Amino acid sequence: MNTMNPTITSETDMPENTAVPVQEERPAETIIEEGKTVGKPFADDPKFKLRNVEVFYGQDRAIKNISLDIGRNEVISFIGPSGCGKSTFLRCLNRMNDSIDICRVKGQLMIDEHDIYDPKRDVVELRARVGMVFQKPNPFPKSIYDNVAYGPRIHGLANRKSDLDDIVENSLRKAGLWEEAKDRLDATATGMSGGQQQRLCIARAIAVSPEVILMDEPCSALDPIATAKVEELIAEMSESYTIVIVTHSMQQAARVSNRTAYFHLGHLVEVNDTDKVFTSPEHELTESYITGRFG
Amino acid sequence: MTDQRSQAEIVRQSLKRRYRKERRFRAYGMLAIAIALSALVILFADIIGKGYTGFIKTTITLDVHLDGEAMYLDDPTDADQRSMADFNAPIITALGDLIPGVEDRAAQRELSRLVGSYGSSQIRDLLRSQPELLGTTQTVTFLAHDRVSVYVKHADNDNYSVRLSDQQIEWVDYLVERGVIKTAFNDVFFQSGDSREPSNAGILGAIIGSLLTMVVTLLIAFPVGVAAAVYLEEFAPRNKLTDFIEVNINNLAAVPSIIFGLLGLAVFIGLFGMPRSVPVVGGLVLALMTLPTIIISSRAAIKSVPPSIREAAEGIGASKMQVVLHHVVPLAMPGMMTGSIIGMAQALGETAPLLLIGMVAFIVEIPDGFFSSATVLPVQIYLWASSAEQGFIELASAGIMILLTFMISMNALAIWLRKRLERRW
Fold this sequence. Notes:
The structure holds 2 protein chains of 2 kinds. By secondary structure, chain A is α/β, with parallel strands linked by helices. Helices cover 35% and strands 22% of the residues of chain A. Chain A has a single domain, classed as P-loop containing nucleotide triphosphate hydrolases (Rossmann fold, 3-Layer(aba) Sandwich). Chain A has helices spanning 5-12, 28-31, 86-92, 123-129, 144-155, 161-174, 178-181, 194-206, 224-237, 250-256, 274-279, 284-290; strands at 38-39, 48-57, 60-70, 75-79, 103-111, 114-115, 130-133, 212-216, 242-246, 259-264, 267-273. In chain A, the strands form 2 sheets. A 7-stranded mixed sheet of chain A has the order 1-11-10-4-9-8-7, with helices on both faces. A 4-stranded antiparallel sheet of chain A has the order 3-2-5-6, with helices on one face. In chain A, 45% of the residues are buried. Chain B is mainly alpha-helical. Chain B folds into 3 domains: 2-52; 56-193, no CATH class; 204-421, Orthogonal Bundle (MetI-like fold). The longest helix of chain B has 50 residues, at 2-51. The mean pLDDT of chain B is 90.
């Protein structure tokens, strides 16, 4: 583990939006067949059933005809070079793209057989079921307690103070933060270290008892030790939640996920069991990426 | 090798040039600051130098014998008698006792003019409230006449001309020597409204008028401004109409303030029939003037709330409304308040629009409500500065000092609020 961690940090130091230098003789576009994903993108009785998903930013097509199933209580990681659309795709799953005016989503996106993009659907209810943890720890500038209690409060999950206290304690325990935080629940959350803040954000997401947790590069702003803690946490949480994690670190994907999906230029190139993706990738682009020829 | 060395030489040369440039640039900056600061220092020195005497009053303390016969008064409780009585008589007698030998009527009149013109009403008020004092001798402190005051305070100042006769100057010098004429802290200035007599004029009326006006301005401009900013920033769709509104808000901020006065005159007074020169109308006009400032600064404050906080709240399932009310507005509040206070400070110093809605009237009474006639600090200063009496000059400067004190404290409050409530991420 320790030998791998420096790699993680060095990868996250990479500037965003680096162009994708495809050092192939043939350009990537010609290798990828639109809408075709090698490996096993589909599952029986999935949590998410996503078919022919396309996302547009104005005229730009950021996600090109992706179909994928995400199983129940599965940890799936999205990998791929910067700008490949993995974060965009992740944000479709709880409609975080809604706040971007120019963003349009097409295709069929179902959670438990219900349409995510049904206009009648209340996005608030969806997000209570599909929680999210962001790249940069973003606790509210309030106390630790209030951070965790915020979700249950706005959803009316606790009627009494003691119920709320229980939820806060349980969430902090699950996030492995209780021992560190129990004596300073009233301290402001922004005073904690980066790793603690990120675990607080995870606790905040768990507090509303979601079914799914989306993680958008949750460790990219953390040091190796904090990263290890969060990864441990993901492993524990996988028992009770479906977890979708976007990561820049292939080692991380290998460590935490059951399945791995490789994205390239808005296409979903390959999805397979994690060990298979990293030991015997089927697609040549996946192989180039994991062997470090680009990315 | 040689190549490399010459390259290093070139770099060194260019470095020298760069440092020179940087030093010159810094010097320009310091010069600019020096100019700005010296302008400020000159301004303050001038105002304080001219105005500090406004905080000094000149008094004459006399032992007046309240002789009923001399005043043609035998019952001070009788209003008819009071209106006929000569309350000046005891003052003339008292002065005559101090300066014997003034027999001729013209000289007596000159002598009585050492005391301000409100001296007789001071005696009348004294007798009305305490009728039993009739026939006794009382020590009463009068305000000296404005001209005496100017002479006592500014005898050696060329900017003031002495408007006393030689005879009067002699008397005044004598009375100063005897300690009858004294100077003291001008409490009258802080306790009364405007007056025809500089010695009796005070700033309290204008301060109360300004406060009432500012309360109206704040109550209207702050909620409306913040609501407009929140709507425009958070809820309004981005389209041609909102672009148009945005441009016009910025235009509104640049509209000369007198235009707002015209608008107030036409709409509030003309159309709605509101009374002239009252704090409500003044406050409404200033609220309109301050609105764009508040909207613009509030929008900037809302924009500066990091998107990660919005995402965090949205990610948990907070509705748009909850995101705005629980997170964005509280976090933007310090910025909004700072902008509002600065807008209010601007409004406090505004004169032009208020002239148009009649707040320039001569008002002696201290306003007691939002609908009573009032004037405000800058207008009071304007009135005094354009008065003919010399005594008003120092009052205008003293008024400016009061106004500046209010403004500096408001700006200090804004800075303190910003420092105190500012949050870091």
